[in-house]
Design brief:
The chain is α+β, with helices and mostly antiparallel strands and 505 residues long. The chain is built from eleven helices and seven strands. A five-stranded mixed sheet has the order 2-4-5-7-6. Strands 1-3 form a two-stranded antiparallel sheet.
């Protein structure tokens, strides 16, 4: 699968996931809205039924009061009186309940005003009739009943109540239709959403199966490529190992062969120096011959003028040649040491690094005292590694820390250590002159040095240290600023296996 195909597939998967999330969100939001709307519509349907029931209940209480009053008027029976009183007492609360249930409708509010007025009138008629009966005037009570009947208050109450019931029936039909529509929409949305979810699930399964097939094919190709890569790596590693060995042999041979002519040059330079001394003594003896006696002894000759300047120039030239020869000799010796160290096989062993660095600090104690420096060694983790390589690494770093302290400032050199994920991390820090950040890489190059060149050295130490650290399977870095000290960080495996590293050489 190409990178473009992989990007397109990833884009489709993201779009599919976003579409599924959007569908689920819409379904959830729509379902919640429609369910709430259906619940609200059903609540209003129930409200309408309650309003109808209360209107009927009010109408029933009015008619019950009339019937009880007529029975009491005809028979004067106490049971009719009791029934009448209960009915009259229930009329006002029933009217209040009807008012509470229908006050949201403007049309019903108008009917309520009419109904309240006519009920109040009818209750007043009831009161006059019952008062006449209690005063022992049944004929007057009968006349009042006929008069009330003629006025038609009861008929008016029935008509107004009928209008209110009709309005509630209309509302019942409208609200029932709304509730049915909300439930239908909710069911439709749920069905459509479920279908979309199933469709997206099928598409997802198809994409997953397609991705799985593509992944299996890619894994098969990767296994083939890995097998080929292992063969190529083994071949290249063997070539690299042979080339590395050849380079080391070449460096050793060249360094060894360079030393022979260098020794000859050093010898002939010494002879040339002696010969030059003889020549200038001869010149001096010739230029100072007495006119009337034998020549002066050579030890008594003193050159003058141009001869003296020529002798000085000759001595200076020989001095430059000698210093260059000495520098070349040191460089050749360093190259020979590096090639010998590169051919040495490391021998891993368990090392008490705290004890090792304390021993190194003891050997450098004299230089530290002269530099007014103190070496502090904290608790360090023990590791399995090559002892000689570790001695060379830390000896070089501590020696450099002592060598490059700031003049007039008491030196502090600290060695700390910790472990992390199977590695030991060592830090060698100082408060010395520091290193310019632009030279952080330069100091690890062979024969390269940074800063003021006021200390002896060939620019080999840190290059050698980093090579040793890499052979031990670790890494090395520096953190430093000018006049702010330096911290060299060494990361090494806690348990180093020498077989692989030696095999790679």
């Amino acid at each position: 699968m190409t990178a473009e195909e992989h990007r397109r597939r990833a884009l489709w998967q993201i779009l599919l996931f976003a579409a599924g999330l959007l569908v689920l969100t819409v379904i959830s939001a729509g379902s919640v809205y429609l369910v709430n709307k259906a619940r609200e519509d059903n609540k209003w349907v129930v409200h309408t039924i309650e309003a109808q029931n209360q209107i009927n209940a009010l109408l029933l209480e009015v008619r019950r009061a009339e019937s009880a009053l007529r029975g009491y008027l005809l028979t004067l029976g106490p049971e009719f009186q009791t029934d009448y009183e209960k009915a009259v007492a229930a009329i006002i609360p029933a009217l209040d309940r009807v008012t509470r249930l229908t006050r949201d409708n403007p049309a019903q509010r108008e009917n309520l005003e009419k109904l309240s007025a006519v009920i109040e009138t009818r209750l007043g008629q009831f009161a006059r009739e019952i008062a006449a009966i209690r005063q022992g005037q049944p004929d007057m009570a009968t006349a009042l009943a006929r008069e009330a009947s003629a006025e038609g208050a009861t008929t008016t109450i029935g008509n107004v109540a009928g209008e209110m019931i009709g309005e509630e029936e209309r509302l019942f039909r409208v609200r029932s239709a709304n509730a049915d529509r909300s439930q239908t929409l909710a069911a439709s949305l749920t069905g459509i959403g479920s279908g979309l979810v199933v469709l997206l699930a099928l598409i997802s399964v198809w994409l997953v199966r397609r991705s799985a097939r593509a992944r299996d094919e890619a894994e098969a190709r990767l296994r083939d490529a890995y097998a080929n890569l292992e063969a190529v790596v083994d071949e290249r590693t063997a070539d690299l190992r042979e080339a590395n060995n050849e380079i080391q042999r070449f460096a050793y041979i060249v360094s060894h062969d360079l030393r022979s002519p260098l020794v000859n040059i050093m010898g002939f330079t010494s002879e040339l120096e002696e010969l030059g001394g003889d020549i200038f003594r001869r010149i001096g003896s010739l230029t100072h011959v007495p006119a009337d006696g034998p020549p002066l002894a050579s030890g008594e000759i003193a050159l003058e003028g141009p001869d003296k300047q020529l002798s000085a120039d000759f001595s200076e030239a020989l001095g430059f040649i000698k210093s260059s020869i000495a520098k070349m000799d040191r460089l050749i010796s360093a190259i020979l040491n590096l090639t010998r160290e590169g051919r040495r096989e490391f021998q891993p062993e368990k090392i008490d690094t705290h004890e090792l660095i304390e021993a190194i600090s003891s050997t450098l104690a004299h230089q530290a005292v002269e530099a007014q420096a103190e070496i502090h060694v904290a608790a360090l983790p023990d590791i399995i590694s090559d002892r000689l390589a570790l001695e060379q690494i830390f000896s070089n770093l501590i020696d450099n820390a002592i060598k490059y302290l700031k003049a007039g400032v008491p030196g502090e050199i600290r060695i700390r250590g910790r472990t992390k994920l199977g590695y030991a991390i060592f830090e060698v820090s100082d408060n010395g002159r520091g290193i310019d950040p632009k030279d952080h890489q330069r100091i690890f190059d062979l024969f390269r040095r940074a800063g003021t060149q006021d200390k002896p050295g060939q620019g080999i130490g840190l290059a050698h240290v980093r090579a040793l650290v890499r052979r031990l399977g670790g890494t090395m870095s520096v953190s430093s600023e000018l006049n702010a000290g330096s911290t060299f960080t060494i990361t090494l495996p806690i348990a180093w296996n020498a077989s692989n590293r030696n095999a790679e050489r």
